[in-house]
Structure formats: C-alpha cells, structure tokens
Amino acid sequence: MVTVEPRKSGEDLALHVRGVQHGYHIDGTYRPVIQEMDLRVEPGEFVALLGPSGCGKSTLLRLIAGLEKPSAGWIEVDGRSVTGPGPDRIVMFQDPTLYPWRTVRQNVALSQDISGKRDDHAVDEAIRLVGLGGFEKAWPHQLSGGMAQRTALARALVNHPRMLILDEPLGKLDALTRLTMQTELHRLWKERGFTAIMVTHDVDEALFLATRVLTLGGTNRSRILSDIRVEAPFHRHRDDPYLLGLRHEILSQLGYKDV
Ligand SMILES: Nc1ncnc2c1ncn2[C@@H]1O[C@H](COP(=O)(O)OP(=O)(O)O)[C@@H](O)[C@H]1O
Ligand SMILES: [Mg+2]
C-alpha cells in the first residue's frame, strides 16, 4: 500500500494542514465544504473537533486519513504528504464494524491476518490494554456496545499507529458507558502516546479528553472558528470551574449563547 511520499518538510509536526480547500460536485455544480484551512498539530496532542452537523468534520477526517484528496492544499503527517490511507493513521467510527464471523481475537488481528504478519503477542497485549482479557473467543453478537467499541479500539491500536482519527467514536453508546469509555480512551492515549484527532458533538467529552479544542463552522463553507488550548491537568474533573468556563466559551462560539 502506498501511503506517503518521501517529502520531508523539516518540521516536527504530527499533522500539518496547509491551505486545504475541499468540496463536492453535486449535479455538475461544485459545492465547497471546507474553505482555506491551516492547522498544525504537535506529536502526542489530543485535538477535539466540534461543529454543527454537515459543516465538514468527517470530510476533514477523511482528508487526513487519505481517503479523499483535497481540492486544493496539502496535508502532511509526520512531515510527509498524505497521498492515501496508511497504517500510521487509523480511523475509528461510531460503528465498531466488527466481522460477525470472527471472534474478538480474530477481529483485533484482522489487519495482521490480511498482511500475513500475525503478531500474537501484540494482539494479546492490545486485548488486555482495552480490558477485554478473557473475552478473546467471544463473538461480536455476545458483546455489549461498550465491549464492541473496546474491540474496535484494540484493533485500531494493535499495530501501534502514530495517529488515531476518531469520528464520534463513542456517539452510539449509552451515557454511562460513554463516561467509562472516555476514561479508557484517556488512559490509552496516555499509555500509548499517539496523536488523536477526534470529532465529537459532546463539549464535555472534548473538555475531558483534549489538549486542544477546535470549533469549525461558517456560512456556506467551513473554517476554524476557534482553537482553544485546554490547560487543565489530567485527571480532569468535569465540574472544574476552569473547564466550565471553557465550555461556555466554546458553546458561545458555536452559537449557543444561553446554555
Ligand atoms: N461524498 C460526498 N458527496 C457529496 N457531498 C458530500 C459527500 N460527503 C459529504 N458531503 C457533504 O459535505 C458536507 C459536510 O459533510 P460531513 O463532512 O459529513 O459533515 P459533518 O461530519 O460535519 O456532519 C455536507 O453538506 C455533506 O452533504
Ligand atoms: Mg460527521
């Protein structure tokens, strides 16, 4: 699989989005979605993206993942321009998309089986890491929503990607499972040290997990409206007055003034 061109920018950035514009042709007309966008992310940052539905959050993630090419501009990951998907950038969606005919262990080992490079030790370690030890032989239909998403996380992390691209990964979970999984996701990020780019519609989730929160929006086409560094140390408390202040600021930025 071709992933990147050997084109070093000489900068130590995990992600560099430079002058990216993107849109789609619908019925012969070009409809812009993302207007000129610049973004620099350092290795190991946890960036949360918030914005109204349809503003282009998933589109931006697909561009970073290399699943689509921008209409204009450049995207570099670790100093190399993105030309397609690659094992250094794993994407995780709302739906865990497990294969029903494979066990937890076989689902986690999927990419290794495809490439013919099975590493049993890495598979077992990833399963333990997400707290699924003992469930290796379970089938997807025997798992709760949270366990299925843990399996998807183990599958995402098994080959130690440098970047995790998360599109509302906890969006389908019930409220309490969601809180548990936020703590888990934070622990995995701390332990593995990957760079995370996560779309969420939950401001509290963003403030619990992220080192930086970006809001996207605008009329007709989106841009970055705000880029807020979350300075609170981990482990964070959701009722920390500093975080509540940021929550208010971010919601105002998104157009919600009276919440
Ligand atoms: N493959 C596609 N073809 C045409 N339009 C698309 C396609 N994917 C997304 N769009 C449009 O781009 C806009 C942004 O979509 P999306 O990135 O999914 O938004 P978000 O994730 O913020 O809800 C929407 O108006 C959507 O209809
Ligand atoms: Mg989306």
UniProtKB/TrEMBL annotation:
SUPFAM superfamilies: P-loop containing nucleoside triphosphate hydrolases
Descriptive protein name: ATP-binding cassette domain-containing protein
Species of origin: Acetobacter estunensis
CDD domains: ABC_NrtD_SsuB_transporters (cd03293)
Similarity comment: Belongs to the ABC transporter superfamily.
Residues passing through the membrane, by range: none
Ranges where the ABC transporter domain occurs: 15-243
A Pfam family assignment: ABC_tran
